[in-house]
Design brief:
InterPro entries: Ald_Oxase/Xan_DH_a/b, Ald_Oxase/Xan_DH_a/b_sf, Ald_Oxase/xanthine_DH-like, AldOxase/xan_DH_MoCoBD1, AldOxase/xan_DH_MoCoBD2, AldOxase/xan_DH_Mopterin-bd_sf. By secondary structure, this protein is α+β, with helices and mostly antiparallel strands. Helices cover about 25% and strands about 25% of the residues. It contains 16 helices and 30 strands. Strands 3-5-1-13-10-11-12 form a 7-stranded mixed beta sheet. Strands 7, 8, 9, 14, 15 and 16 form a 6-stranded mixed beta sheet that branches. The structure holds dioxothiomolybdenum(VI) ion. The site of dioxothiomolybdenum(VI) ion (MOS) has 11 residues, from loops.
Length: about 750
């Protein structure tokens, strides 16, 4: 008889094992490290959007108490640029090094760095640094960049074309031809970007809030011209990052360089305001979608062309069309991406990069296509459903999108929807019901891990990946527990340190699928080593062969009634531990396409009398393979739904079109959903179908998918309530009142 799912460690609903440390304040984040003789740095940030530094006058600032040094382009060590390659696990977001020259490419760019005895002294002096600029007229945003007449730079490798989309569209019986826009959005993790750097005999030790200690180590080694062995990066706890902490930004380089120059540890926290300019953002997009359908509502043509704003120094394409070749059956499809340059900081990945803005547009347009022919949007999606990835011409490794549509619809009560716009009411409120599909590619990377069975009866696991608040510590403990039978409270998990065996970036929703096989393999290797000891000359099972021995629930037994726990065995043999090390490959069987899916059903309430719009109910059915931990998985989707509501209704980073300077670069004016904005009801249905074509544990990863499609579902619900088709995020009240 098999145990009920709840009793199994993989799939259990477990609280985070790092919870007590975080709640009690014991968890140390990058800026919690106050090292002996530490000094503090504060940036001077450009107050123009474009131009040149003519002069920097530090004379007054230099006299202020506690000031140790002031760095700028005229006074900074020579460093090295990096090849910035994902393959080499070595990447910066901004290729240009801090203080490299006198150029200003965006507002909020580091133009100087003051180092002082205290944070307050550094900040006070930073305000006294006088910078004389030669200002040029900036290109403030996507709109202005498009208006310059500069030809958008195509991002060739991400395009897709099949069939003949142009003529199929022209001949289609129904046509939707629309443009959607999404704004620049800023990552706002609770923990600000921070670097605490020190040098020890020519080696760099960096406490960095990063989603990738290995990447950070490799990158800093390149920049400082060191062998990787002479850089150590620590990030045991991260207050999230959402993609803004995947790769090295200028502040980390500046802090490490300053520390080496002055011969003391330096701590640099990026102020919240500069997190709007110097540590990445989700770029603004303009997306042109054309949909052609036949008389029955079948897709015959689908075109999705995106242009996004990038910075003056780096090309970052937002792959908004990434799901478009995949999600529906259609013979004639075109997807393209291109960039235009503006005087803004360099964009980067933000939770579900590409897919989040892309599925707002695609799933809105699908709704428009369904509405145009008087078809229920869910029925329209089912009609155009496919279990074959027509983009890659491969079957999906596992797909339960139809089940997501059906279970989500049933839970939500979709069949009770009156399709007529503005027909559903509750008192003064108009009720809108909308839905959308979600999609995110499933990815894996190479990884290594170390597992040690210790003589004190505990298990030690280490891997140089990070837990950015997603539950990785817990999932790693569950994996080690599943293999060894040792309960999670006797498993010590060590992550977030570049000296541990190489682990993946915490990004792309790939950490779980990447580390589980490595942990499991290392645990099995540790058990093998234990068996070698046990059957060796001094071992208690010397008459047995390795193959005779069974290991379960932390015990070694010979099948003839003799058994001993690994702790006792090691103690008896005077051994500290039995070790296992493993390397696993992220390579996947090329016979399949690997994707996660889901469906969001959203209710909004619009009160036209007081112009109030709220998301009142969300049901999301999510197909991400095996659920490893019900609690942390549901929590990831709930968080993504809230972030999706932020995308739909609130978030936008705005620049003054005249000066190119940021307008709402603070928590008061950059709106994110708060407690009062949460929908009273959020239901997450985790479909829990293991995908063994993808990985041995069947888990595909869950961090990003929940935000994809959500803004589309909200926009579709808003249309259903109000009859207003808002094609430009966020859906602010002025747009509804216009
Ligand atoms: Mo994610 S945007 O890969 O942190």
């Amino acid at each position: 008889m098999s145990k009920p799912n709840e009793a199994k460690i993989i799939g259990a609903s477990l609280p985070r094992i790092d919870g007590p440390e975080k709640l009690s304040g014991a968890a140390k984040y990058a800026a919690d490290n106050h090292l002996p003789r530490m000094s503090y740095a504060y940036g001077v940030f450009s107050t123009i959007a474009s131009g040149r530094i003519q002069d920097i006058d530090v004379s007054q600032a230099r006299q202020m108490s506690g000031v140790l040094d002031i760095f700028h382009h005229g006074h900074f060590p020579t460093l090295y640029r990096t090849p910035s390659s994902m393959e080499q696990e070595n990447k910066v977001d901004e290729t240009r090094l801090p203080f490299e020259d006198d150029k200003v490419y965006y507002p909020g760019q580091f133009v100087a760095l003051v180092v002082a005895e205290t944070f307050e002294q550094a900040r006070a002096a930073a305000y006294r640094v006088k910078v004389d600029y030669a200002s040029e007229k900036p290109i403030a945003d996507l709109e202005q960049a498009l208006a310059t007449g500069e030809q958008p730079k195509p991002h060739g490798e991400s395009g897709h074309e099949r069939g003949d989309p142009a003529s199929a569209f022209n001949q289609a019986s129904n046509q939707i031809d629309v443009i959607y826009t999404t704004p620049m959005e800023t990552h706002n993790p609770m923990e600000m970007h921070a670097s605490t750097a020190m040098w020890d005999d020519g080696s760099l030790v960096l406490y960095e809030s990063t989603q990738g200690v290995i990447f950070a180590r490799n990158t800093m080694a390149k920049i400082f011209g060191l062998p990787v062995e002479r850089v150590v990066v620590h990030a045991p706890f991260i207050g999230s990052g959402f993609g803004s902490k995947l790769w090295i930004w200028p502040h980390a380089v500046a802090a490490a360089a300053a520390s080496r120059q002055i011969g003391r540890p330096v701590q640099l926290v990026v102020p919240r305001q500069q997190m709007f300019t110097t540590t990445g953002h989700r770029p603004a997009t303009q997306q042109h979608i054309q949909i052609g359908t036949d008389a029955e509502g079948r897709l015959v043509a689908l075109s999705h062309e995106t242009v996004n704003a990038t910075s003056m120094v780096n090309t970052v394409a937002e792959l908004a069309g990434r799901c478009t070749p995949t999600l529906y059956s259609c013979s004639n499809v075109k997807v393209s991406h291109a960039t235009v340059r503006a005087n803004i900081g360099t964009p980067t990945a933000m939770r579900a990069p590409g897919a989040a803005p892309g599925l707002f547009a695609l799933e809105s347009a699908i709704d428009e296509a369904a509405v145009a022919i008087g078809m229920d949007p869910l029925a329209f999606r089912k009609l155009n459903y496919t279990e074959h990835d027509e983009g890659q011409d491969l079957p999906f490794s596992s797909i339960h999108l139809m089940e997501a549509y059906e279970k989500g619809a049933e839970k939500f009560g979709w069949s009770r929807r009156n399709p007529e716009v503005g027909s559903m009411r509750d008192g003064n409120e108009l009720i809108g019901w909308g839905m959308a599909a979600c999609n995110w590619e499933a990815l894996k990377q190479d990884s290594e891990a170390h597992v040690s069975l210790r003589s004190n009866g505990t298990v030690y696991v280490s891997c140089a990946t990070q837990d950015i608040g997603t539950g990785t510590y817990t999932v790693v403990a569950q994996t080690a527990s599943a293999v060894t039978g040792v309960p999670v409270d006797r498993i010590q998990v060590k992550l977030g340190d570049s000296t541990y065996p190489r682990g993946p970036l915490a990004g792309g929703s790939w950490a779980t699928a990447t580390v589980m096989p490595a942990i499991a393999k290392a645990a099995k290797a540790a058990i093998e080593e234990l068996k070698t000891y046990a059957t060796g000359d001094d071992g208690p099972f010397q008459e047995a062969s390795m193959d005779d021995l069974q290991f379960s629930d932390g015990q070694l037994s010979d099948g003839n009634g003799k058994s001993i726990t690994f702790g006792e065995l090691l103690k008896e043999m005077k051994l500290a531990n039995a070790d296992g090390r493993a390397t696993t490959s992220g390579e996947m069987n090329s016979d399949y396409s690997y994707n996660s899916f889901g469906a969001h059903f959203v209710e909004v309430r619009w009160d036209p009398g007081i112009s109030r719009l709220r998301v009142s109910r969300v049901v999301s059915a999510i197909d991400v393979g095996q659920i490893v931990n019900q609690k942390t998985a549901a929590n990831q989707v709930e968080g993504a739904i809230v972030m999706g509501i932020g995308m739909a209704l609130y978030e936008q980073t705005e620049y003054d079109p005249r000066s190119g300077l940021p307008v709402n670069n603070n928590y008061a004016e950059y709106l994110v959903p708060t407690h009062a904005d949460q929908p009273p009801e959020v239901d997450v249905l985790l479909l829990d179908h293991p995908d063994y074509n993808f990985s041995e544990f069947g888990a595909r990863g869950i961090g990003e998918i929940g935000i994809t499609g959500l803004a589309g579902a909200v926009a579709n619900a808003v249309y259903h309530a109000t009859g207003k088709r808002i094609r430009s995020l966020p859906i602010t009240l002025d747009k509804l009142m216009a």
